[in-house]
Amino acid sequence: MQEQHYTLKTILESVFKEKNHKITKRLILNNAHLGGLSNKWIKLAFIIMPFAMYAAIFNPSSFKELGIAQAIVFYIILLVVAMQIIVGSTYFNNKKVIKNATKAWEGYFPGVDFKMVISSGTTPYADFKKYYELALKDGLEGDALHKRLDDAFKQMEDENIHLVEAIKKDKEKKEGK
């Protein structure tokens, strides 16, 4: 199977939303940019599912057979199952996006962990959104965007040198060195 090559902007669009040069992290990652299912389908299923369950259970023919108490219980049970399916599909969608994006990301920034970039926790790259927004405001794309972000990663690592060293020591400890 041939390895897909994605642009840096495509990778970032799959995990971040941009509006007026402001970046927000997606809760449901968009796999459409990486050749998969769009997150709009998952959101649509999340909205439609309760109404579809309601229509299936409370229509005149099935409601007549079930009665009010059983119809309500079935509605709650089916709604729980439907939400579990949606949460599961969201989880696997996000996992697949991160897997595909990480492979492509390593071609651009081999020393930078993609999961740390998109993490909400404390990482050396916590200011990534700020630098990416500045690059978008300047209208950078392609190699210029790559160069700007590469410089930003070096600057963030220099600012957080103690955290970078601690992460490297932890990795070495886990690998048994």
What does this structure look like?
The protein is mainly alpha-helical. It has a domain at 109-177. Helix content is 69%, strand content 5%. The chain has helices at 8-15, 39-57, 60-66, 68-108, 114-118, 128-137, 142-159, 161-175, and strands spanning 16-19, 22-25. A hairpin with a 2-residue loop joins strand 1 (16-19) and strand 2. The mean pLDDT is 84.
SSE topology:
Layout lengths: L7 H8 E4 L2 E4 L13 H19 L2 H7 L1 H41 L5 H5 L9 H10 L4 H18 L1 H15 L2
Antiparallel strand pairs: 1-2
Helix pairs in contact: 1-4, 2-4, 6-7
Keywords, please?
177 residues; mainly alpha; 8 helices; 2 strands
In short:
This protein is 69% helix and 5% strand.
Number of helices: 8
Mean pLDDT: 84
Largest sheet: 2 strands, antiparallel
Structure classification: mainly alpha
Overall strand count: 2
**Strand order of the biggest β-sheet:** 1-2
Q: What ranges have pLDDT less than 50 throughout 5 or more consecutive residues?
A: none
The rounded Rg comes to: 22 Å
Give the termini separation.
Answer: 35 Å
Share of residues in strands? under 5%
**What general outline do the C-alpha atoms trace?**
elongated
Helix content: 55-70%
SSE arrangement, N to C: HEEHHHHHHH
